[in-house]
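Summary of Year 1 activities. Much of the first year was spent building the evaluation harness for sequence design. The harness presents a backbone, in tokenized form, and records the residue chosen at every position. We chose the following record to illustrate the format because it has been used consistently in internal testing since the harness was completed.
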């Protein structure tokens, strides 16, 4: 089976909505692979899988380890791996070196990094040297300390030209798609109309060229989630129920029963 390619994603703009989800492990990647064009190994894994307070402590080695697991669990989807905080901002050379490591050690199809106009020269440098880059604008979680928390972007219409310029800059630099996170719906629509590459929305607009969510959030495995998350499942409640039943069965010695022992 051939994996989804960069040109296929680019051609989806204006055609069919792109389905994207995160995954961090092989079994979850296998489930997502059956339905999505893109699996993102997001640095959200720091919080979702490792219980970190933010994405800032995530390392390149962590991204590669989870990236390898997701590649093993998937066959068809394009796997995109997030570049973690500190692994690409310093220079185009640093970004290329670390992205090349991610691609060489995982076999993934592309990397993602946060930032607009500021990162455009870096994106150009990487793409020219063979690394497909997905950009990420609007609310960029790695900049949480600068932004003063997670704030919806573009509430003040005066800021729209800056956000539009960010999206246009990454597109002109050669990014093959761009995540638009946590922005006012009308701004997301403007960005989607303005750029020639697919926009992948999260907390953005139904008119983006695709959508992405954190898998654990939409499955109901996370505690509190932002309002832009729709819970398509309640796996957290169901897991809690199953674990409670297991604990009760151990305590009343009804587990294991005749069928679960070797005689
Ligand atoms: O880290 C992540 O999961 C992401 C998506 C939410 C876009 O960057
Ligand atoms: Na991320």
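For this record, the design step produced the sequence shown next.
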């Amino acid at each position: 089976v051939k994996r989804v390619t960069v040109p296929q994603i680019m051609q989806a703009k204006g055609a069919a909505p792109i389905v994207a989800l995160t995954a961090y492990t092989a079994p979850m990647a296998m489930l997502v692979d059956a339905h999505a064009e893109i699996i993102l190994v997001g640095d959200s894994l720091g919080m979702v899988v490792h219980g970190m307070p933010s994405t800032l402590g995530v390392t390149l080695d962590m991204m590669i380890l989870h990236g390898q697991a997701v590649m093993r669990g998937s066959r068809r989807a394009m796997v995109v791996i997030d570049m973690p905080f500190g692994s690409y901002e310093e220079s185009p050379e640093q970004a290329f070196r670390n992205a090349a490591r991610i691609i060489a050690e995982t076999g993934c199809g592309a990397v993602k990094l946060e930032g607009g106009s500021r990162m455009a020269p870096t994106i150009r440098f990487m793409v020219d040297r063979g690394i497909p880059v997905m950009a990420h604008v609007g609310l960029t979680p790695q900049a949480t300390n600068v932004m003063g928390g997670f704030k919806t972007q573009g509430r003040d219409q005066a800021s729209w030209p800056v956000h539009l310029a960010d999206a246009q800059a990454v597109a002109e630099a050669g990014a093959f798609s761009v995540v638009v996170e946590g922005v006012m719906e009308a701004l997301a629509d403007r960005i989607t109309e303005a750029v020639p590459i697919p926009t992948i929305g999260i907390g953005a607009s139904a008119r983006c060229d695709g959508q992405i969510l954190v898998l654990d959030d939409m499955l109901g495995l996370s505690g509190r989630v932002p309002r832009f998350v729709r819970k398509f499942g309640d796996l957290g409640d169901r897991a809690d129920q199953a674990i409670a039943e297991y604990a009760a069965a151990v305590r009343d010695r009804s587990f294991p029963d005749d069928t679960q022992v070797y005689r």
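Strands lie at 18-22, 38-41, 78-82, 110-114, 133-138, 177-181, 199-202, 210-213. Quantitative recovery figures across the full test set are reported in Table 2.
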